[in-house]
Amino acid sequence: MKLGVFRGQKAVNTAIILEMSEIKPQKILICRTDKIGDVILTFPVITALRKTFPGAHIGYLCREYTRKVLEGTPGLDELVVFDPEAHKGPQGIIALSRLIRAKHYEAAVVLYPRPGIALALFLAGIKVRIGTAYRWYSFLFNRKVSLHRKNSLKHELEYNLDLLAPLSADTSSKEIRLFLSEAEKKEGREFLEKHGLAGKSIISIHPGSAVSVLNWPIEKYRGLTESLIKNGTYSVLLVEGKGEERLTGKILDGLAVKPAVLPGTADIRQVAAVLAGVSLHISSNTGTMHLAAAVGTRTLSFFNPTKAVSPARWGAWGNNGVSVLPGRAECVDCRPECPDYNCMDRISVDEVLRKITSLLGSGRKAS
User: Based on the domain organization, do 343 and 194 belong to the same domain?
Assistant: First the structure.
């Protein structure tokens, strides 16, 4: 029977399901080659594949800088590193296809569609290649799922799970959890103790963000930091991303009492271990938001009103987090020429302080 394209996210052809249920791949490759938060939102995919194929070898194609997020994850047998420089262009794609072919994977699920990845899997001769149906290069997939993620009708985590339909995987579990070793947990506690934060109600603040995200103004982050320090109810920890020393300096400049700083030199697992010990993490829609949620810490996150990056699709998952938007109509796109381009400035420090008081009144305390 020739396999066709799925005609909708819910109405999946019964004959296709029956055919696919007979496929029991022994080696499966998950492909997600973008950022930290995106990778964290694929944890339930790993769980689903392991539950459905308990004896299979499951690998994950990721970037070097997201590899650490996946280390120690139950259900994963192998991490395969995608290098965006070494694996670009015709020769790079061929090199990637040879790397994958040598590992003898039978099925691959492309969660972050990119033509180079799709072509590499095709050239590697992987028998079952699963991907979205509506890209110009979707002909390179032989198991297609109809997804329109741009409409943001559901969470990215759920879209990821939808792509497992061709394998009839059990997608009932949607839990996200980053597994830390006892040594890593100890290191996180020692950092907090060293800076006099252990046993206190701690608020961590990360003022940096991805360039694609319109963030809360740095002046507001500084005002929030100063207000929290003066209030004295909570201890404050400033989280610095890699290369964000300038932002840290802008917040610290002129403060009479300076908060502790987790420097940008800390690796992602060290950041996770520290965030596991705080009461609330404040940031934009960025990797540390998802990292905090993955270790069970509540989040207060700033989102701009652009549809493609809405909290409905990209919000923190499973930690009772709160998303804060500027209170204006949803935008199709965010452009500098927009007369309300600085709409994030509408969110006041006082509004955020009120939300913090509400959250920590019923939220998890530092342990």
Answer: yes
Alpha helices (H) along the chain: 14-21, 36-40, 43-52, 64-70, 89-101, 115-123, 156-162, 182-194, 218-231, 245-252, 268-275, 287-294, 311-314, 349-362
Q: Give the whole-angstrom CA distance, residue 359 versus residue 309.
A: 23
CA–CA gap between residue 128 and residue 168 (Å, rounded) = 13
**How many Å apart are CA 250 and CA 331, to the nearest integer?**
30
Q: How many domains does the chain have?
A: 2
Mean pLDDT, all residues of the chain: 89
Contact of 225 with 254, CB cutoff 8 Å = no
Q: State the pLDDT at residue 23.
A: 66
159 lies in a domain?
A: yes
| pLDDT tens digits along 66-121 | 999 999 999 999 999 999 999 999 999 999 999 999 999 999 999 999 999 999 99
- Percent of the chain at pLDDT exceeding 90: 78
Range of the domain at 346: 182-362
Cα separation values, 129 from 38, 125, 272, 295, Å:
20, 9, 33, 32
Helix (H) or strand (E) holding 79: strand 78-82
What's the CA gap between 308 and 152, in Å, rounded? Answer: 6
The yes-or-no verdict on residue 3 having pLDDT over 50 is no
Residues 134 and 188 in one domain: no
Same domain, 160 and 27: yes
Same domain, 227 and 358: yes
